Amino acid sequence: TDALRPYFERAFGDGAALDEWFSLLLQYSLVVTVADSYADFGTVGRAALEMLAKAKGVQLAPEDETRILQGVLTLPPHPEVPASLERLRAAGFRMVTLTNSGPAAVTAQMQNTGLGKYFEESISVDAVRRFKPDLEVYRSTASHLGVGPGELMLVAAHAWDVLGALQAGWRAAFVARPGKVLFPLGPQPEIIAPDMKAVADALLR
């Protein structure tokens, strides 16, 4: 998401507003899940952006709001990701994406990154109308794919996602990018690596 930071600098005068917005987005995605008042991730993201602007006393220009929300659809992959996915696919791993984004957003993201060719399917939480890390997301995904939870491994850079998958009986790998740390309570993933190349190295050993 760091690619969005210049947009937040322009809109809020401080690039750190990106981190505040993303925290609000995650917080309220959980709120609408627990409160059973689902709205898609893009809608929650727009609402969180409006909340942040109001809290900071910023009159958010429509073009800045659009630039930020459209920017989410064009985030670039980390540089080592394509080659790492290619190695895993060549080794016979079955790969899908599982995301909080809605179906249209997932399609745009896969097209814009060029990563769609590595995955047999992109699965959105929209099907169950609950956001990760709600356990129903992981359970329904396992059922959809026709495999047991223990046959699935989540690879993610978000500790909350890793925890949810592990609690649902999945295996997990944590991509410990700078500033990302694991939640110390609960089960821990079997792979902890600094990037996707290292995750692929561990899986191919």
Description:
- The chain has 205 residues and is mostly helical.
- The chain contains 9 helices and 5 strands; from the N terminus they run H-H-H-H-H-E-H-E-H-E-H-E-E-H.
- The protein has helices at 5-12, 17-34, 41-56, 62-71, 81-90, 103-113, 135-145, 159-167, 196-204, and strands at 96-99, 121-124, 153-156, 171-175, 191-193.
- The protein has a 3-stranded parallel beta sheet with strand order 3-4-5, sandwiched between helices. It has a two-stranded parallel ribbon with strand order 1-2.
- The longest helix has 18 residues, at 17-34.
- It is globular and about 50 Å long.
- The mean pLDDT is 97.
Short synopsis of the structure:
The protein is mainly α and 205 residues long.
Please supply descriptive tags for the structure shown above.
mainly alpha; single chain
Q: What percentage of the residues does DSSP assign to strands (E)?
A: 5-15%
Q: What is the total tally of β strands?
A: 5
Which structural class fits the helix and strand makeup?
mainly alpha
What coarse outline follows from CA principal-axis ratios?
A: globular
Weakly predicted, low-confidence segments: none
What distance lies between the first and last C-alpha atoms, to the nearest angstrom? 30 Å
